[in-house]
Protein 1
Amino acid sequence: MFDHTFKILCVFLVFQTICFSQTEGMANIKGSRYIPLYGRDSTVVEVQDFKLDKYPVSNQQFLEFLKKNPKWQKHNILKLYADGNYLRQFKSDTILNDIVNPQSPVTYVSWFAAKAYCECQGKRLPTIDEWEYVAMADEDVPDARRKPSYNQQILSWYETPRTDEKTIGNSPKNYWGIYDMHGLVWEWTLDFNSVLISGESRKDVDKDSNLFCGSAAIGATDLMNYAAFMRYAFRGSIKASFSIKNLGFRCAKDIEVNP
Amino acid sequence: MRTLKNTKIKGINILFFVVVSLFMVSCFNNEKTVYEEAQDIPVSREMTAELTAPPNVPTPVGRRKAKKLIVEMEILEEEGELTDGVRYVYWTFGGTVPGSFIRTRVGDEVEFRLQNHPDNKLPHNIDLHAVTGPGGGAESSFVAPGHEKVFSFKTLNPGLYVYHCATAPVGMHIANGMYGLILVEPEGGLPLVDKEYYIMQGDFYTKGKNGERGLQPFDMQKAVDEHADYVVFNGSVNALTGDNAITANVGETIRLFVGNGGPNLVSSFHVIGEIFDKVHVEGGDMVNENVQTTIIPAGGAAIVEFRVDVPGTFILVDHSIFRAFNKGALGMLKVQGEEHEKIYSGEQYEGIYLPEGPGIQEMPTTNEIVESEIPAQNFEEQMKFGKQIYMQTCFACHQAEGQGVPNAFPPLAKSDYLNADVNRAIGAVVNGLTGEITVNGKKYNSVMTRQMLSSEEIANVLTYVYNSWDNNGTVVTKQMVDKVKGK
């Protein structure tokens, strides 16, 4: 179904958007059932096998995309698709500011732009469940959430300023062969706003939502819940047109089933 | 709704009345409009609120009318110094911990603009306890990095209120410094005083122990367990001491706006050597008088007022006292001016007090004295360690330069008594010394208690003494001390 949408899209955009499919630089993720970080026993999530980019998209890569697809350049983009901060690290439509590291993750991109970038490569944004599934791995195991070291590392990143300026791929890859899920930037997900949080996190505690149910929040002495709360809080605070200094993305792809 | 007092009309010519009342209003302005409900107070104009960093507070509202008050507050996540050599990433309202002080009056319509700096990692919001409404504004102010949220509220209740961040995980946002105070003054303002200051307590949880150097990350487990490594006023151990002390002059009345951000600990706020003349209990209307220590709940505040009558340095503490002396909850108020001996005399006399006769004054402690784990390796180390012991043990009586105190404690500098007999000197330290002795031609009749020091320590301290202040340079060894002990 996705492929179908993609074809239509490409037909629509054939004049402005140059698309090409590629799968190099992706890792295979073996799907499974798991309880997401916000953990409630009854909400087991199933993730199918899929492919995920090993690295977040870099400034350089996004620049190439912009050169080929002018309608996503900062002066051409529709106001509906991006707020005023869109591509602030670019001094013109296709030139980065001098101080910007081309190999650091691209940020100041809206959800629309991230989605378009992925679609252009025959990919898509990962879902929250997919992203969180891969993010719970450390270097050795697919689910490290119970390890204090894993949580401490994530929390300390949340406290470290300006990590978005670092170069991609300098920290060890995780169990799946994926780099920088934590440590550089937040990442867009396809359904980032499917989690409705009001911004009043204490109130969300007793809301009958699948995220901040009482059992998850009140008993959240677990460090792992705190790391997750912060990610979900972040997702709850953004809209699809927002372009933020600490928010980048990477792409995912379904595994093609041979007929 | 609007009730005008003093408007009794008894069948008088209406035109005449209008003229008179206009005259009254314009010339005397004695007619006071009293609103039964604060929500009915009209606002006259727009003004931008003055925000101040602690320990300062904005200008009092005085008699100004209720206004539309614009408050612009920027959220910054930034590294700062928790104490000497210990760095911490603070999350702040306005770049300081506690956040900027907001001063309003009853009836103000506050337009709050909350700005989340683009460099910040996290979304934030603000819950002001002065707000009547869901979440205290938290719901309406949830803002992503690089964005701004605006919401408005009317101040209905006078008092001193805490504000803080309420984004998940709430405890962590507060623990990292996201709290401050907003004052809502009553109509006409609080009575004027000479000095006003802003102080807010908070507890901090670091991965390393208190004093461990370097950039210390937040420790969630310690926060959950409520094991604070630091308890401080105004965000860091040295925020209110030394050059940062708050000041006043003798005779001035001081008002402290004291808050407690928590996240966990309740403060027993006390100023050593002062009695609070007035305390607005919990920051509300109730005034208690003559208070020694007032309790300030986490997420609560108090207004304390007192007149300073004598000069000196007054220490502000959380009287849960280990927090003050071991974790940093200590500030200073330096008062300058004339001594006032009727109120406080200062030291008048010091003598010797011998309650149970001489010779038995020793600390009731174990007789086992543990030898230092790191013995001095050479003369330089003996001098170094000896000086440390001297400053801890001997300094109080024999003084910094070994000069002693005339008529009370004999000198150690250029001391004939000391230099004449090293074993006698060792014996004095080991066993104590009582009775009349003559030192440098002067008679002393005093008591030196037996010192609870190890042989090694005695050797070091005596070596230090013998090699200072023109003494004869004897080097005392542990063996020499053991020999005297063995007698």
Protein 2
Amino acid sequence: MIQALTLILLCQLLGETLARMLGLPVPGPVLGMGLMLALLALSQRVAALVVPVGEGILRHLALLFVPAGVGVVGHLDRLGAQAGWLMLAIVLSTFLALLAGALAFLAVARLTGGGWYGDDD
Amino acid sequence: MMTDFAEIWSYLAAGPLIWLTLTLVAWVAADALSTATGRSPWTNPVLIAVLLLAVTLWGTGTPYAVYFEGAQFVHFLLGPATVSLAVPLYQQGQRVRRALLPVLAGLVAGSAVAVISALWIASALGVDGETLAALAPKSTTAPVAIGIAESLGGSPTLAAVLVLLTGIVGAVMVTPLFNALGIRDWRARGLAVGVAAHGIGTARAFQVHPQAGAFAGIGMGLNAILTAALAPAVLRLFL
């Protein structure tokens, strides 16, 4: 487990370093995800180590947003007089974005014959 | 006795232990409630745990900075969790490669609609330009959104608030919406919620189905890149 965590942190560290060095608009951990994906694909040993630990962390992904969420409650007054309008824009736009994303995916999947075969194709 | 308790409290409240513990306690309670209601979208555990803790901080007069001393240990894991998203990508690699074109189509459509519709609706309602700059990247993951908002002249704090609200709205909305429409393809459902509602949407997708979670992770990661390119161009249309 410590070896897996070390690899995960090394990928994040390298990702942060690359993002800063190259001035990329992508956050370090996202680059780190790309590096980890390459490691997993290259080495069975890395995969055997990292897969169970990564799955364990992701099982609790939602918990990790709680501290930032608590911070946001204190800043709700920042929304100011426009709070209602902003909330309406967020709800409608999220609704439309979900629809657009899923429908575009399904339409192209049908066109390219990449249909869905269920849970365990 | 009262003074004893007050002393113990002031000792504990100053250290990280109590706030880390209370963060986990609030989470365990919220998660139990969510499980007891069969993972109903209305009992989103992030939302409930956040409200429980916000009330506790307010009731005890604790500043957020003191709370965060303890909660930072949980917050820090967001980075390693993002790196760990490589795991489902790796496991679902073949399925993802086969769906490459649908993924790109869903990404571009979802990302563009998220930015354009938010700015169009908000500007039609009379929201000012500086606030629009903070709203534009709301569907992307918080660190990217904050960077984009800043470069567009919006407030980073407001951007973080809007990002979190978007995540919770998306996580609550996604399951009833796609059930009502009869969309059963986990790939489409996951990708859409990852693009529209970043990490909180992705966390919701993992609760529902591992395939949805993997595609949500891809959607979130790719949208971080696309929004950085898209948001400045779209914002210019509405200023």
